[in-house]
Amino acid sequence: MRGRVAAALLIAALGVLCVPAAARASVDAKIEQQQHKIHAAHERLIEGRGHLQGAQGKVSSIASQLAQTNSTISAVNSRLGALGASMASTQRKLTWTRVQLDAARRTVQRHDAALKRRLVDAYEHADLGYVDVLLQARSFADFVERWNDVRFIIRANEATIRERRTEEAHVASIESSLVGAQADLAAQQRAADQERHALAALATERENLLAAARREQQVAQAEVVQYEEMTAQEEAALETLIREKQAEEEARREAERRARQLAGEPVAPISGAPGSVMWPVSGPITSGFGMRNHPVFGRFIMHAGIDIAAAQGTTVQAAAGGRIILAQYAGNCGNMITIDHGGGMATNYCHLSQIFIGVGQDVEQGQAIGAVGMTGDATGPHLHFEVRINGRPVDPLGYLH
Questions:
Q1: Which of the 8 DSSP states describes residue 304?
Q2: Domain that holds residue 86
Q3: Which of 18, 148, 170, 280 is most buried, judging by how many CB atoms fall within 10 Å of its CB?
Q4: Pairing state of beta strands 335-342 and 290-293?
């Protein structure tokens, strides 16, 4: 009788085990489906980030070109200002030179007119002043001396006229030079003004291009935000499935324990979550637990674990013993492993370059489970390590020893 009761109890326990096994297969299928959704969402996110990066590059390039154009316009305006000042200075010099030239010409005209008038008077009115001077000589020597004086006066008059004409020619040359300089400055001014108009048109064109590029950037930014939200939703759904998987693992462990009890086998005491875990990889912490500005997203968001710097390919060890409930690509986390340790505790290992184990496999503390990488959203090789209690992320430093 006692044997039949024991057998019945064992059959009942085995029935309890069969139900979670079927449910476990269903959850595993859901997790796999969710993984495909996350992968597709993350692919769209990567594509959206590529568009955003291209749009940002276009905005930066056009903004730089516009700044260069505006700088050139400022230089041309400065040059135009300098040319205007030179034109004004040249005009003042030209005005004064023309005053001097007019005065020199009047002086030459006066001297020339006086000489001509004297010659005309001598011819028409018998103005024989020079002859009288010569005839009043008292001796031949006095005549010669008087003759030399007359010749000196005539030459002096002629020299004065020549000097005035030379001065007039010099001033006229200065005027011609200033007129040429004025024409050259005017040509430079016209060329600079044309350049300014062309640059203004180019600046307007680039302003329009910049506005279009910024609109494109805004659209790409909105798409990225949308894809990030979609990815976050899919990852949240995966976390829900992982918690469901953990609950199944707890039910499985409890069913196995009851089956052993019914079979009369020795049963170990129920063990809760490990009080501490070992470091999964050696290295400095490059980003701690808590709110931070994400290096990829560029937004201030929660960092659910710690980042441990390590070389690409460094072996990652299980922080504590448990069962693998996730070992696959998981969107932002890249290649990811989740180990259920019992008592509601799980650890996550992200951005792996390789995964050494499979779902459903039991591992011991310190066992190699993967290799450090930079899959998913990572700026360099490192291990993102999380500790979760009943699905809630906690600071791993409170558990690491």
A1: -
A2: 78-190
A3: 280
A4: unpaired
